[in-house]
Structures are given as C-alpha cells and as structure tokens.
Design brief:
By secondary structure, the protein is of the alpha+beta class. Helices cover 36% and strands 21% of the residues. The strands form five sheets. The protein has a four-stranded mixed β-sheet. Strands 1-3-2 form a three-stranded antiparallel β-sheet. A hairpin with a 2-residue loop joins strand 7 and strand 8. The radius of gyration is 24 Å and the shape is elongated. It starts with 13 loop residues before the first strand and ends with a helix. The relative contact order is 0.08.
C-alpha cells in the first residue's frame, strides 16, 4: 500500500496498530502522519481528530479496555455532566488524565495519560454511557470522596440527587442520576476504601432539588455559622401559583436567592424576571435576601443579615 493512499478501513473510533496492519496497512504505513496515535499502540480514526472532547479521548482508549475496566472518578463525573473543581485547583496539567478503574484480581491498566486504580471485585456497578463503560453515578460520587473538598463533595451529591438543569429559565431538569438509597448502598460497598470519613461527613448533608454548587456552598456556610438549616427549593405561594426560592425558612417567611453570574449577564429580560419574582415574594409577606459569589468568599455580612431576619 502506498504511503499516500488513504486508509479507508476504519469502522471504529480507534483501532490497535495490529488490527490496522491486519486490514492491509504495512508496518511503514502505520507510521504516517495521517495515522494519529491516541496512546501507545492505538490509532485513532482521522475523522475524529483532534480529540477536543473528553468523550473522544475516552473512545480512543476503547480498543485497550478490558471487561474489568471502566471510566471512573473525575472522568466519569465529567461524562455525567457534573460540575468539577477547576483543573488548576486540582494541581494537574491540562488535559486531565483519564481515570480508569479495574476490578481485582485484574491488574490496573498502565498507560500514558491514564490515572488507573483498582477496587475489589463486585464493588462498582458499571453503566453504558454513549457506548462507554462508566462507573455508576453513585459509585462515581463515592470514589471522589477524599479527592475533592467537603464542600464540593456535598455539591456533587446534591447534583446527583437532583439531576441536571436542562434549561435555566423553564425549570426543566433531567431525571436524578441516583437516589439517596443508591448512594447509601454504594457507600456501604466502598466503606473500606479511600474517602470513607469524607463520605460519612457529607452524606447526611445532601439535599435535593438543588440547582447549583453555589447554592450548596451557601447552605453549608449558613449551617457552619450555627444557624438553622434552610429548606432547599422553598415553596412560596404567590397570586395563585407557587414560586420556589433557592433556600428559605417557611416558619420565618424568609427567602434566600443566590444570584449567579447569569443574573447579571442575562440582559434586561433576566433583570426584569428577577425583579418581578422578588416583588411577588415580598408582596406575599416574605423577606427576600439575595446572595452573590462575594458572599461565599466573605459570608460575614450576609450571615449577619440572615441572623437579623430570623430574629
């Protein structure tokens, strides 16, 4: 086969070098520039290049995955759409290595660009996500314990129990990724692994529905200050319909709204929506406290206002 002749026998996202050779390519041909390597011994279908997404990077590793392997930890969380800490905060290079778990007694997969680890047999449940073997959302949450902060672990658990927001304005969510019972069952399976203390501390604090990590963080700030736990997605009856504050205290008729960045960048329509919403809550006899990212960094002023409102 001439080096310049396109290789047209790809019927997968990636193939082992030996498979490409068995389909007619010479040993010299597989060294050509149009035979991109995803990892040692793996040639990627050129139509997928560059591997600009995590999903494509995972697909490129499928030829070397064994039945005992699955994508896990940070990789699984990102594939499920869960919000993760910034890469810089993790102290790792860009892109992040691909997390792959292997069930014992098989040996962990050793390969450049892969962060491998092992678990006891029958510890994790594996789901198929767009054709990829991925640890279940409950197992993924358990395996992130001890690797992210307490605050982030609670926020990830809230997101797992809530489901992901489909459209910010309409209030539509995907189904929950897991139930609380499934999280407890997974924690029992992982009780002897890294993060058991972190899981035990975070599990009782999980709530749903919660729409953002910032709302979870604000709830923890309130709790850490010794104030009563607020109700998430607090219902407020206004003019024959029900609005839901991010957090609230029905007994005290105090509502808390977290104003994320989109509230300030959403333009006139978003601003008008927010104003009308808050005016309706106030007209229904509720006091509305608004919090921003600054209140998460320096919560003293907000907590003082909240304490006064509850008194």
């Amino acid at each position: 086969m001439n080096r310049r002749t396109p290789f047209t026998h790809f019927d997968a996202d990636a193939l082992r070098v030996s498979e490409v050779i068995s389909r007619g390519a010479s040993k010299g041909r597989v060294q050509a520039k149009d035979m991109p390597r995803a990892s040692h011994g793996i040639i990627v279908n050129p139509s997928l290049m560059p591997l600009h997404s995590l999903e494509l990077r995972c697909r490129a590793l499928l030829p070397v995955l064994r039945p005992t392997d699955a994508f896990s930890r940070f990789t699984a969380a990102e594939l499920y759409g869960l919000a993760l800490p910034r890469k810089r905060a993790l102290g790792v290079r860009d892109p992040l290595p691909i997390d792959i778990v292997t069930e014992l007694p098989a040996r962990a997969l050793r390969r450049a660009g892969v962060a491998s680890h092992s678990v006891r047999a029958q510890t994790v449940e594996v789901h198929r996500l767009a054709g990829l073997p991925v640890t279940s959302p409950a197992d993924t949450w358990c395996m992130l314990a001890g690797r992210v902060s307490h605050e982030r672990l609670v926020a990830l658990g809230d997101a797992v129990l809530t489901g992901l927001r489909i459209d910010r304005g309409g209030g539509q969510r995907s189904p929950p990724l897991a139930t609380l019972a499934e999280l407890y069952a997974a924690c029992a399976q992982h009780e002897r692994s890294v993060g058991s203390v972190a899981r035990a501390a975070a599990l009782p604090l999980l709530r749903w529905p919660v729409d953002s990590p910032a709302e979870s963080a604000l709830r923890l700030r309130i709790r850490e200050a010794g104030l009563p736990d607020p109700q998430v997605n607090c219902p407020i009856e206004v003019e024959g319909r029900t609005l839901h504050a991010d957090l609230g205290y029905p007994t005290f008729r105090v509502a808390i709204e977290y104003e994320g960045r989109y509230h300030f960048t959403g333009g006139e329509e978003q601003a008008r929506f927010d104003v009308e919403r808050h005016e309706l809550m106030i007209a229904a006899g509720w006091r509305v406290l608004r919090a921003t990212a600054r209140d998460l960094r320096s919560p003293e002023s907000f907590l003082r206002r909240l304490s006064e409102a509850l008194r």
